[in-house]
Write a structure and sequence with these properties.
2 domains, elongated, about 50% helix, 10 helices, Spore Coat Polysaccharide Biosynthesis Protein SpsA, Chain A, alpha/beta
Length: about 325
């Protein structure tokens, strides 16, 4: 059997409208390279015809394969499942919506051949996205770099090429609340970028609405930084200092019989609500970390595969499901 040189990992969730175009563009790009490849689609619990469409691709071309999840486990577990099963010497992660251009795979491979272990696509501009999403994404990436000790590239998503050595190192990191781009940065290895302009969606709706973007952002911060927990210490020290200064102020005012303000219910409630607000925020941050510890210690699989379509040279981690 011919050794697979490149593996494409393509997570899919309700992409029936764009899949035929995506598949053809991926085949055109990979065939032009003249080396053995495989395309692994991961159907992440789609509720439309995405699964059946990919099955037709598999029947027409043995290089195309499908991992069918038993339900929707999320984008990051889908990426992980594809990497687990990838047999190539280099693995390329790309979404099915064509916002990340398949034609950039060639330049990525050239960088890899030059000796880089990780080649990620850096967005020079974002077309078809709202002002709010662009600004919040920019602010988030820069805030994440300030909070973490590991430099995570800004304006970079999951669209990237990784060497098989990087994939093997990722397999030793079985955490559940995965932030793959952060994990790859944490691993180190030699990294570089290829810049591009991110295109608007060709069809369908975004699979990353505000709610999911917020969750992904929290995963990134809590997976790579414990500085939010230190926030409670800082706030506690600051509030204690202000309380002590206020106590001295009240003592001096009473000593010299100064009337500073009339006692009032409103001012008292403002102080109480402020302290309760700070307390609840810190309890929420602590609860977020504890919840993630709870997820890890349960030891459940990261994903469950209900069916594999096509021949996989690599079977990946142990999970339920069959060929």
């Amino acid at each position: 059997m011919e050794t697979i040189r490149f593996s494409l990992v393509v997570p899919v969730f309700n992409e029936e409208e764009v899949l035929p175009i995506t598949n053809q563009r991926l085949l055109d790009v990979m065939t032009s390279l003249g080396e053995a490849f495989e395309i692994i689609y991961i159907n992440d619990g789609s509720r439309d015809r995405s699964g059946s469409i990919i099955r037709t691709f598999c029947k027409a071309d043995s290089r195309i394969k499908l991992l069918e999840f038993s339900r929707n486990f999320g984008h990051q577990p889908a990426i992980t499942a594809g990497m687990d099963h990838a047999a190539g010497q280099a693995i390329i992660i790309i979404d099915a919506d064509l916002q990340d251009p398949p034609e950039l795979i060639g330049p990525m491979i050239e960088k890899w051949r030059q000796g880089f272990d990780v080649v990620y696509g850096r967005r020079r501009a974002r077309e078809g996205e709202t002002w709010f999403k662009q600004k919040t994404a920019t602010a988030y990436y820069r805030m994440l770099n300030r909070l973490t000790d590991v430099p995570i590239p800004v304006d970079v998503g999951d669209f990237r090429l990784i060497d098989v050595r990087v994939r093997d190192a990722l397999l030793d990191m079985p955490e559940h609340n995965r932030y793959v781009r952060g994990l790859i940065s944490w691993l180190g290895f030699s990294q570089t970028d290829v810049q591009f302009v991110r295109a608007p969606r060709l069809a369908g709706k975004t699979k990353y609405p505000l709610r999911k973007m917020v969750k992904l952002g929290i995963d990134g911060i809590t997976s790579f930084s414990y500085k939010p927990l230190k926030l409670g210490i800082g706030l506690g020290i600051i509030l204690s200092i202000f309380s002590f200064l206020f106590l001295i102020f009240v003592f001096v005012a009473r000593l010299f019989d100064l009337v500073i303000m009339e006692p009032g219910y409103a001012s008292l409630m403002c102080v109480i609500l402020f302290f309760f607000g700070v307390t609840m925020i810190m309890l929420g941050i602590i609860g977020e970390y504890i919840g993630r510890i709870f997820e890890e210690v349960k030891g459940r699989p990261l994903y469950v595969i209900s069916q594999r379509v096509g021949h996989f040279a690599r079977k990946g981690r142990k999970t339920t499901g069959g060929d």
